[in-house]
Amino acid sequence: MKKLYIFLFVLNFSIFQNLNAIDKNINLEKKLELQWKNYDKARELLLQKAALGDVPLEEKLISREDWEKLIALSPSEDFTDDDLLYLKTLQEKRIYKAKIKAKYESIIDLTKVRHKQLEKQFCEQFPKGGMLHVHPSGTLDRNIANILLQKNNPVLEFDAIFNDIDNSSGNKMLYPSERLWLSNLPKGAKYSDLTKNSQNKFQSFLFLPAGKQPFPRFNSVFSFLNFATPDNSSYQQSLLAFVNKAAKEGVIYIEFTGTAKPQFYDTLSYLENQTGVTLRLNNAFRRTKDIKNLNDDWNKFINSSSNKYLVGIDFLDNEENNPSLEKGQFIYSSALFGSLNGTNKLHRTMHSGEIGLIEDPRDSMIMGVERMGHGVNLSKDIIALEYASRNKMPIEINISSNLRLTSIDNVKQHPFIKYLRLGLPVSLSTDDEGMFDIDINNECTIALKKTDISYAELKQMSYNSITTSFAAKEDKDLLKIKLDHLFYQFEKSSFVQNLDLLKISSY
Ligand SMILES: CNc1ncnc2c1ncn2[C@@H]1O[C@H](COP(=O)(O)O)[C@@H](O)[C@H]1O
C-alpha cells in the first residue's frame, strides 16, 4: 500500500513536471516568435532605407537607439531570467543529443587515434574540403618570406610605415622597443647589409609576436609585408606556395577575402591553373573607414564589372568601435536589397563577433548575412544563438587566430563545437596562417586533441566548407563529388586500415 502511494506520488510529480515543462516551452516559444518578428521589423527598416536610393546619407542612417527599440520586446513580453535559463537547458540537451548521435554515426573511432597520439598524422591525411576565411596577404609563411627578402633585398625605410601607424587613429601600433629597434637601423640600409641576427629580427616583423596580441599590433604586421612582396610576381609566388601547401593538406577550395581588382582575378586564374584548387574571392570592405567613405567604396564596387572569381562581400578589420550596424548598414542593406531584387548575385559574409559589441553577430544576421566570420561572441547572446541555430547560420571558424587575438584563452572555451552541435554549419579555416605560424592541419589537430569531436562531426565540417561556400551551384556540385571521392579514398586508405580505425570492419 505504501509502495502504491509512493508510486502515485512520483507519477503525479512527473506529470506535473511535464506539464510545467510544456507550459514553459509554449511560453518561451511565443516569446521567441515575437523576438524573430522584431528582427524581421528591423530588417524591413533596413530595406526601406536601401530602397530610398541616392538620398543624403543622414536620411538613410538608422541610429542604434531606433534599432534597439525595434528589436526590444515590451517589458511584459520580455524574456525572464527563468526563460533564459530554460532555453539554456534546452540547448544543452540538444547539444548532448547531437554529440551522442554523431558519435554513434561515426564510422571511424577517434578514441584509437587519440589513444595512440596520432592526431597530427590523422589530420595530415584527412580531407579538408574548403577554407572559407583566408586573407591572401596573411598567408605568407617564414620560409617564403626568407626567400623573398633575400631575393628582393629591400631598402629598410620605415618613415611611411611610422606615418601610417601614427595616422591610423590607434588601429595600428608597435611596441616602443620595436619602434626603437627599427629606428636605430642604419638609414638607407638594405636587407643584405644586416647581420644574420638582425635579418632574423627584421623578419619577425612580418609575423605576429608570440602570445596574445591586441588587434592594432596584429594590424601593423600587414604594413611590413611589402618588404617581402613589393611586386606582383613576388606576391604571386607567395600565394602559389600557400595554395600548393593547402592542396597537399587536402584542401580543394579556398574563398579569399581581399580586394577585387582585375590584377587579382588574373592571379587567381594563374593559381587555379597551377594547383587545381578552386579559388574564389569576397571583396573586403574596411569597417575602420567612416560611413561616407564606406558608402563611396560600395558605390564604386557595385558599379564595377563582375567576374567569375568574385562571389561575395565581406566586412573586416578591427570590430572594436566599428560595430556591424553603425558601419555596415549601407553596404549590407544595399547588398541585401539588390540580392532580393535580383540586381546583384553577390553573397554576403561578415567578420562578426570576433571582438567588439556582443550585438554584432545578431545585427549582422538581421542585416542579412549568409555566413559569419569568427562569430565567437554569438555564444554570449543566447537568443541570437537560438536564432542562428534555427536558421542554420554557417560560421567560418579560425581557432588559432581567436586564441591569439580574442579573449578566448584555450580551445575548451571556444564555442565552435557547441555551434556545430546546435546545427550551425561550422567549417574550419586559418584566417592569416602565415602570420600565426599555423596551417589547416594544425587546426584539425587542435580540434582533435582539445575537444571531444567525433569523426562524423569532423567530416561534417569538411562538407560544410563546400556546401556553405559561395561558389556557383555547378562548382559546388563538382567540389562535392571531389570531396566524396577523397573521403572514399581516405576511409579505405592504408593509414585507416592499418590502424584498424574503422568501426565496421566490412566497410
Ligand atoms: C584575425 N582576423 C581578422 N579580423 C579582421 N580583419 C582581418 C583579419 N585578418 C586580416 N584582416 C584584415 O585584412 C587585411 C588584409 O587583407 P589583404 O590580405 O591584404 O587583402 C588586413 O589589413 C586586416 O585588417
From TrEMBL:
Segments forming domain Adenosine deaminase: 267-481
Q: Which Pfam families does this entry report, sorted A to Z?
A: A_deaminase
The protein's annotated catalytic reaction(s) are:
N(6)-methyl-AMP + H2O + H(+) = IMP + methylamine
UniProt keyword annotations, A-Z: Hydrolase, Metal-binding, Nucleotide metabolism, Zinc
| Biological process annotations from GO | adenosine catabolic process; inosine biosynthetic process; nucleotide metabolic process
Cofactor(s) it depends on: Zn(2+)
> What GO molecular functions are on record for this protein?
adenosine deaminase activity; metal ion binding
* InterPro entries for the chain: A_deaminase_dom, Ado/ade_deaminase, Metal_Hydrolase
Can you tell me which family this protein belongs to?
Answer: Belongs to the metallo-dependent hydrolases superfamily. Adenosine and AMP deaminases family.
* Identification of the protein by name: Adenosine deaminase domain-containing protein
Q: What's the source species for this entry?
A: Silvanigrella aquatica
